[in-house]
């Protein structure tokens, strides 16, 4: 029996890597009975008579996992948003952040294509950068095909397992290709007819980049709050998390309750209007979802 990490899953096969190389494995049938599906990023025990005929026997406990993309044990999420094409969206950024925080993954925010914007939008982007940095996030700007600022990413990737996420067409694959030109990941321009990028990434695979492992994942644009309860939501807005303990009522949702520390901070301008409005929008969405179920 040997140990290794799943670095790719494709067509029912799992590709497990360790110091002896890469092994193509299938999952033992008892995983289905136990309702466990091995994921890319899993630390596993396996046995293999040769490189192409192995079986995964056990999956170690995960520190976290994402459903879409299906991947486990992630250290950080590199969230890529383009300044243009598709247009930068604070709402989508906050939606992604809630999901990443809810899965106990550290986010790194990257705004791409900043060289394509006019002066007015450039000033707005700097304002957003300052806002999210004041909350506690790291925000990097990158330009199209500009190696110097994309290289600023390298220290954040080294020694970590990262997932790259964002809408289709924001330049995730282009960014990885610049970090490591040997990758040659397929990229596609935005479809002008649909106004969104075509899905070029078909499966999840961990790629060795800049001294770490990076998952290139399918682009996705829909993120539902299926597993988040209304009273939990503010835990995933960092600037509200600490304040929540000062509210008079336990389980305060910071919407209509009196003596709410979060609302008080918002009224004093200590919480950004966009963040508070998005919080209330997501809260309403979660409540409506719970009614439906």
Automatic annotation (TrEMBL):
<keyword id="KW-0694">RNA-binding</keyword>
<dbReference type="InterPro" id="IPR027417">
    <property type="entry name" value="P-loop_NTPase"/>
</dbReference>
<feature type="binding site">
    <location>
        <position position="260"/>
    </location>
    <ligand>
        <name>Zn(2+)</name>
    </ligand>
</feature>
<keyword id="KW-0862">Zinc</keyword>
<feature type="binding site">
    <location>
        <begin position="166"/>
        <end position="174"/>
    </location>
    <ligand>
        <name>GTP</name>
    </ligand>
</feature>
<dbReference type="InterPro" id="IPR010914">
    <property type="entry name" value="RsgA_GTPase_dom"/>
</dbReference>
<comment type="similarity">
    <text>Belongs to the TRAFAC class YlqF/YawG GTPase family. RsgA subfamily.</text>
</comment>
<feature type="binding site">
    <location>
        <position position="252"/>
    </location>
    <ligand>
        <name>Zn(2+)</name>
    </ligand>
</feature>
<feature type="binding site">
    <location>
        <begin position="112"/>
        <end position="115"/>
    </location>
    <ligand>
        <name>GTP</name>
    </ligand>
</feature>
<keyword id="KW-0342">GTP-binding</keyword>
<comment type="function">
    <text>One of several proteins that assist in the late maturation steps of the functional core of the 30S ribosomal subunit. Helps release RbfA from mature subunits. May play a role in the assembly of ribosomal proteins into the subunit. Circularly permuted GTPase that catalyzes slow GTP hydrolysis, GTPase activity is stimulated by the 30S ribosomal subunit.</text>
</comment>
<feature type="binding site">
    <location>
        <position position="254"/>
    </location>
    <ligand>
        <name>Zn(2+)</name>
    </ligand>
</feature>
<protein>
    <recommendedName>
        <fullName>Small ribosomal subunit biogenesis GTPase RsgA</fullName>
        <ecNumber>3.6.1.-</ecNumber>
    </recommendedName>
</protein>
<keyword id="KW-0547">Nucleotide-binding</keyword>
<dbReference type="InterPro" id="IPR004881">
    <property type="entry name" value="Ribosome_biogen_GTPase_RsgA"/>
</dbReference>
<dbReference type="Pfam" id="PF16745">
    <property type="entry name" value="RsgA_N"/>
</dbReference>
<dbReference type="InterPro" id="IPR012340">
    <property type="entry name" value="NA-bd_OB-fold"/>
</dbReference>
<dbReference type="GO" id="GO:0046872">
    <property type="term" value="F:metal ion binding"/>
</dbReference>
<feature type="domain" description="EngC GTPase">
    <location>
        <begin position="72"/>
        <end position="221"/>
    </location>
</feature>
<dbReference type="GO" id="GO:0005737">
    <property type="term" value="C:cytoplasm"/>
</dbReference>
<dbReference type="GO" id="GO:0019843">
    <property type="term" value="F:rRNA binding"/>
</dbReference>
<dbReference type="GO" id="GO:0005525">
    <property type="term" value="F:GTP binding"/>
</dbReference>
<keyword id="KW-0963">Cytoplasm</keyword>
<dbReference type="GO" id="GO:0042274">
    <property type="term" value="P:ribosomal small subunit biogenesis"/>
</dbReference>
<feature type="binding site">
    <location>
        <position position="247"/>
    </location>
    <ligand>
        <name>Zn(2+)</name>
    </ligand>
</feature>
<dbReference type="GO" id="GO:0003924">
    <property type="term" value="F:GTPase activity"/>
</dbReference>
<dbReference type="InterPro" id="IPR031944">
    <property type="entry name" value="RsgA_N"/>
</dbReference>
<feature type="domain" description="CP-type G">
    <location>
        <begin position="63"/>
        <end position="223"/>
    </location>
</feature>
<keyword id="KW-0479">Metal-binding</keyword>
<keyword id="KW-0699">rRNA-binding</keyword>
<dbReference type="InterPro" id="IPR030378">
    <property type="entry name" value="G_CP_dom"/>
</dbReference>
<comment type="subunit">
    <text>Monomer. Associates with 30S ribosomal subunit, binds 16S rRNA.</text>
</comment>
<keyword id="KW-0378">Hydrolase</keyword>
<dbReference type="Pfam" id="PF03193">
    <property type="entry name" value="RsgA_GTPase"/>
</dbReference>
<keyword id="KW-0690">Ribosome biogenesis</keyword>
């Amino acid at each position: 029996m040997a140990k290794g990490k799943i670095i790719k899953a494709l067509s029912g096969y799992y590709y497990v890597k360790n110091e002896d190389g890469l092994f193509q494995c299938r999952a033992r049938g008892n995983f289905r009975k136990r309702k466990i599906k091995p994921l890319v990023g899993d630390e596993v025990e396996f046995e293999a008579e040769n490189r192409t005929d192995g079986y995964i026997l056990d999956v170690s406990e995960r520190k976290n996992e994402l459903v879409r993309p299906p991947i486990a044990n992630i250290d950080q999420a590199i969230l890529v948003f383009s300044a243009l094409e598709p247009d930068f969206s604070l709402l989508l950024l906050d939606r992604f952040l809630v999901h990443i925080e809810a899965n106990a993954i550290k986010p790194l925010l990257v705004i791409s294509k900043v060289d394509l914007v006019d002066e007015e939008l450039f000033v707005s982007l700097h304002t957003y950068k300052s806002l999210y940095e004041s909350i506690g996030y790291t925000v990097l700007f990158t330009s199209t095909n500009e190696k110097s600022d994309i290289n600023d990413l390298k220290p954040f990737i080294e020694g970590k397992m990262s997932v790259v996420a964002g809408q289709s067409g924001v330049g995730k694959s282009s960014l990885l290709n610049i970090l490591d030109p040997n990758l040659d990941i397929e990229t596609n321009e935005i479809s002008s007819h649909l106004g969104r990028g075509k899905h070029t990434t078909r499966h999840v695979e961990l790629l060795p980049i800049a001294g770490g492992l990076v998952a290139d994942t399918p682009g996705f644009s829909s993120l539902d709050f299926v597993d988040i309860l209304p009273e939990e939501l503010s835990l995933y807005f960092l600037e509200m998390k600490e304040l929540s303990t000062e509210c008079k009522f336990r389980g305060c949702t910071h919407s209509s309750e009196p003596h709410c520390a979060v609302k008080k901070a918002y009224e004093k301008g200590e919480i950004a209007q966009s963040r508070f409005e998005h919080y209330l929008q997501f809260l309403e969405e979660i409540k409506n979802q719970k009614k439906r179920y």
